[in-house]
UniProtKB/TrEMBL annotation:
Database matches in CDD domains: UDP_G4E_1_SDR_e
GO cellular component, one term: cytosol
InterPro entries assigned: NAD(P)-bd_dom (IPR016040), NAD(P)-bd_dom_sf (IPR036291), UDP_G4E (IPR005886)
SUPFAM superfamilies: NAD(P)-binding Rossmann-fold domains
Name by which UniProt lists this protein: UDP-glucose 4-epimerase
Length: 350
């Protein structure tokens, strides 16, 4: 079953790199493509080192998905059995200020990919959607049946791509597509050799906490402590990156084994909610570092409580998350302490 060729777009990124490693360990042959806009080729080198002998099954191409000719060349050199499509821009705040950048990159990138896939008769796809499509949910846990909405440009690109995938599959039943809605991926590979390395000021909670812990930033701003939650801070469903990567392997097997799949959506989360202050406390325990806090206003567009219903993924993908916040914080800290400046330390720090 694993004797297959998989194209991974955005393969040098945070989720992509961890998934590429697990694909290699599972026995798949992988071609990773990435334009390195938000990532470093060092991530691919580290994945190759971690993969041991399986590194012979990994190739990397620096390609922008919107470059049809370059993408076509990649498809001409390998007959792919499936594509896992991570490549996209993901910063919510930036998307609101630069909508054309986001629509151009995420939509044109995806449409070009789908067209090139069709031209090469590769019609098996796994796409990275997001819990952002649940907006401020009326109730929790969020089930896949909730009607989706978009609170910002980034979220709208996810909704539009989900719709494109549904329309495409309706028009041609040879397409078999799994849309995975991730909740809040955190942590790192237990080796501490690969992890999340955002460029610029981190938008997300865990990379920010990590940068405070290693001394790159003075304090964490807690966005709102007047929510209707146990301690007043926002509640999210944090999922260990290794569990998330594993969810992609489960989805891939589903695509290959279940011929009835048309276009199906699955949540990837743990089903458990954790507040900002609980996450800070768990990180302080794992790292032994104190995280100074500044109580700040709510961040615009943030929801109060978001966590996943995990039933559908359990039933149909036979997948469930194994790790809790202790392991997430342990592995995040291991990565941070081994790589305080991420993959590429600035000159002044090396
Ligand atoms: P990431 O930025 O680390 O990885 C995305 C990769 O795609 C980067 O390496 C980037 O350089 C590459 N890329 C972007 N545009 C490209 C293009 N036009 N051509 C080629 N490469 C391009 O982000 P991530 O956290 O690994 O996220 C992966 C996917 O999962 C994204 O689609 C994101 O929207 C989605 N997602 C992420 C989260 C999260 O919290 N990390 C949650 C839900 C969904
Ligand atoms: C988590 C909690 C913040 C930073 C985002 C995207 C979503 C998905 C995952 C891609 C919230 C609080 C955060 C900080 C804080 N990504 N926080 N101080 O907002 O749940 O989801 O990432 O698809 O689409 O919207 O994640 O990590 O930004 O925030 O207090 O400096 O931490 O208010 O309660 P979020 P997050």
């Amino acid at each position: 079953m694993a004797d297959k060729n998989i194209l991974v777009t955005g393969g040098a990124g945070y989720i992509g790199s961890h998934t590429v490693l697990q694909l290699l360990q599972e026995g798949f042959r992988v071609v990773a493509v990435d334009n390195l806009y938000n990532s470093s080729e060092v991530a691919i080198k580290r994945v190759a080192e971690l993969a041991g002998d399986a590194k012979k099954n990994l190739a990397f191409e620096r390609v922008d998905l919107r470059d049809r000719e370059a993408l076509d060349t990649v498809f001409a050199s390998t007959k792919f059995d499936a594509v896992i499509h991570f490549a996209g821009l993901k910063a919510v705040g930036e998307s609101v200020h630069k909508p054309l950048l986001y629509y151009n990159n995420n939509l044109i990138g995806t449409i070009t990919l789908l067209e090139v896939m069709a031209a090469h008769d590769c019609k098996n796809l796994i796409f990275s959607s997001s819990a952002t499509v649940y907006g401020w949910p009326k109730q929790v846990p969020c089930t896949e049946e909730f009607s989706p909405s978009a609170a910002n440009v980034y979220g709208r690109t996810k909704l539009i791509i989900e719709d494109i995938c549904r329309d495409l599959q309706k028009s041609d039943s040879d397409w078999r597509i799994i849309l995975l809605r991730y909740f809040n991926p955190v942590g790192a590979h237990p080796s501490g050799d690969i992890g999340e390395d955002p460029r610029g000021i981190p938008n997300n909670l865990m990379p920010f906490i990590q940068q405070v812990a290693v001394g790159r930033r003075p304090a964490l701003s807690v966005y709102g402590n007047d929510y209707n939650t146990s301690d007043g801070t926002g509640v999210r469903d944090y999922i260990h990156i290794v569990d998330l990567a594993d969810g992609h392997i489960a989805a891939l097997y589903k695509l290959f084994q279940d011929q009835s799949i048309g276009c199906e959506v699955y949540n990837l989360g743990t089903g458990k909610g954790t507040s900002v202050l609980e996450m800070v406390a768990a990180f302080e325990k794992a790292s032994g570092k104190k995280i100074p806090l500044i109580m700040a206003d709510r961040r615009s567009g943030d929801a109060e409580i978001v966590y996943a219903s995990t039933e559908k993924a359990k039933q149909e993908l036979n997948w469930r998350a194994k790790y809790g916040i202790e392991e997430m914080c342990r592995d995040q800290w291991n990565w941070a302490s081994k790589n305080p400046w991420g993959y590429e330390a600035p000159e002044s720090q090396s």
